[in-house]
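Researcher: I'd like a structural prediction for the single chain below. Treat it as a standalone chain; there are no partners to consider.
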Amino acid sequence: MSVLELKGITKRFGKFTAVEEVSFEIREGEVFGFIGPNGAGKSTTIRAIIGAISPTSGEVRLHGKPVTAQPDYRKHIAYVPGDVQLWPNLTGGEVIRFFMEMSGNADTEKMETLIREFRLDPKKKCKTYSKGNRQKVALISAFLSDADLLIFDEPTTGLDPLMERTFHRHVLSAKSEGKSILLSSHILSEVEKLADRIAIIREGKIIETGRFSELKHITRVHYLVRTPEDLAAVGRMEGVHEFRQEGGEAEFLVDADRVKDVLAALKRYELEGLETLPPKLEDIFMRYYDAGSGAS
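Model: Treating it as a single chain, here is the predicted structure.
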């Protein structure tokens, strides 16, 4: 079942097109990764989803209905931006309780658990908080909400590695409860750990959408080869990248559509070992962006 669906979202600011024909859907109980570098159009797309801006064209649908026909649709969404701003003279605890009251949530036990796990001092005023602590207040409030769609835009900015892991754990917990999560990030390892499906955006356009396993056709296979022979000729083959050989071990990447040719070539050598490493999201991402920038 589709919780959120974007159909051809385009947003222009004068002559500048920030996003163009952006379309994807997020299903019930899934983590959807939305990746791209700064300026690619991620935040503009999210602002269109939450109603902060109106798209020039296209449609946002929530639970199968256009949001323009749902005046109260925002109650179904919890949004955490990458740079959280809070009321300076309220304490963190007061802000969290305010958002709880707004959503009708009275689960103080869960609130206290989250505050403890995120290591937040709720008695301090927000004006004294670091960026990371402001982020914690917003994340705790989002996880406490009754929203069935959680939107995180660069959510771990300012968090230390321990708090990043705490965030990851609660994302998966929300998913297990049937909530849907849109995770927008430029941290590829974070998306790779959490996302069921991903969309890659470049220069305002979606260039690929799908499960990670479905995108392996556009990535490169990473090989480690142990051999006493010189594999320099293999390193010069079309589709072979980042070749290096030292001490009886060669390492290189191969375009997926050239794997058959490279394996055929390797049969001519005396091999002591051949190891294939799984492709990474970074390989997919960088191959697209290298192509877009004209890099090899």
